[in-house]
Amino acid sequence: MAGLLKNVFGGSQPSNPAKLDDDFADFVEAPNPSPASFVAGSSSTPALNTQGLDSATQVPYTKWYRVWERTSPKDFMQEAMVMPIILLIVIFHFWGTRKNRRKAREWAQAHRTALSSEFAVVGFNGLRAASPDDITPESLIKERSAQEFASYATGRQNVAFVDVTIKLPKRYNPVTFWTESVLGFLFESWSAPEEVYEATAYTFDGKEKDVVPVPANDGGASLKTNNSTYDGFIWAVVHKNYMQKFRTDRYDASMTFTRDNNKLPNWVTVMTESAEITDAMITTELVQALEKAGNDFKYLIVTDQPVDKPLKIEETHPRKRIEFAASLPSSPEGYTSTLPLFSQFLRLADRLVSVGRLRPEVVRKIRNAREEEIKKLRRADEEEKAEERRLAAEKVKKEDRERLLRGMSADEQKKYLERESQKEHRRMMKKSTRRA
After folding, report:
1. What is the predicted pLDDT for the residue at 159?
2. How many angstroms separate the CA atoms of 110 and 47, rounded?
3. Are 169 and 94 in contact (CB under 8 A)?
4. In a domain, 289, yes or no
5. Among 137-151, 176-190, 267-281, whose mean pLDDT is lowest?
6. Which residue has the higher pLDDT, 256 or 318?
7. Which string of b and e fits 366-395 if b means at least 16 CB within 10 Å?
8. Which residues does 40 contact at the CB level (< 8 Å), separation at least 6?
9. What HEC string does 374-407 produce?
10. Does residue 295 lie in a domain region?
11. What range does the domain containing 227 cover?
12. How many domains are there within the chain?
């Protein structure tokens, strides 16, 4: 009894250790690790084995900044393969950016004389230059992105202002540049990178007093202008290599018909709404400028309709303008071929004011075409509103039905649903009978 109490209250002696089996004698006690020996006078201690458990060599531990003592060139093989690629991309980026800027400066240098001779203010500084030499390329152009530059000019009769956009390839991105180049070479549907500038002249069309700022106490009395209005129409001269893309990308071009003209070179065609417009717009100077421009010319269009197809009636409001596009030459000397045509573009507003009033029959035909497009938009808008009203009525009807069902008992709900099912069945039977 005393031995039992000792065992319960912890007073018993520890039991004899179990007898070890000979087969497991080696696992009973692990050998104590022996400390590593240190060499007298050495300031370094052994470091962890970084070459794996099976490596016999130990990397010595050194100061943190003594990297060369614990590494070797083969530890940087991946970096040695990646760094040249990164360096090549950086060099390509700086080369492409500088070349695009140089191309934009060359355009500004070549066109500053033509712009300053036609407009009072050229560039973004808002000051009138005394001579074309005072206009610097930096003040004439503004960099929107690495591949797009803009220019601006204002202060001319019949033209409110001119916007110019210079579009260049993405030379700063080698992956994008070469991908677009290869895809453009292999597939016709993929446009290859090209260097082009697009100019848009917005005409006053009799709205000088609404656009030109005047002193507050003047009330526009000192602003004396001639009649700058002309009839709205669409007329374009397009290079035949660019004709299909031009008609596909532009809504206003889709409203015209194509017809060749004997006065123009055989590699351009005319897109117009009336042959009478072509007879009034073509001049000897324009024909000579087109012949000199050659394949650098893309299109010249007089329009009052939007480029993108309008989705609302408000977007069909006419905005008269003249647009011109041409390719950038490979050298500054190549601008001599397109400069005469660019000058004709700047003066085309004067031609519109003088001969841009058509016969009533032609105006009526053009107006009917505009009204047909507006009717289509109005019809689509009415259908969309009718669909919205139908969905709103169905939503109200569904809410009333759910409210009515919530106020019924289970039996009443069952009878109500059965009646609905019967009505729907009879309605489907009547519909099938009418079809038969």
Report:
1. 92
2. 69
3. no
4. yes
5. 176-190
6. 256
7. beeebeebeeebeeeeeeeeeeeeeeeeee
8. none
9. HHHHHHHHHHHHHHHHHHHHHHHHHHHHHHHHHC
10. yes
11. 100-365
12. 1
For residue 233, count CB atoms less than 10 angstroms from its CB and return exposed for 0-12, middle for 13-18, buried for 19 or more.
Answer: buried
- Smallest CA-to-CA distance from 98 within 172, 149, 197 is with 172
| Phi, psi dihedral angles at 248 (to 5 degrees) | -75, -40
- Does a structural domain hold residue 316? yes
- Distance of alpha carbon 354 from alpha carbon 227, whole angstroms: 10
Q: How far apart are CA 206 and CA 234, in angstroms?
A: 19
- Gap between the Cα atoms of 303 and 292, Å rounded: 24
Residue pLDDT, tens place only, 277-305: 998 899 999 999 999 998 999 999 999 99
pLDDT in tens, 260-282: 999 999 999 999 998 889 988 99
Listed in sequence order, the residues at least 6 apart from 192 whose beta carbon sits closer than 8 Å to its beta carbon are 180, 181, 183, 184, 185
Q: Is residue 341 one of the residues assigned to a domain?
A: yes
- Alpha helices by DSSP H, 301-359: 339-355
pTM of the model: 0.72
Label residue 198 exposed, middle or buried (CB < 10 Å: 0-12, 13-18, 19+). Answer: middle
Work out the percent of the chain whose per-residue pLDDT is above 90: 36
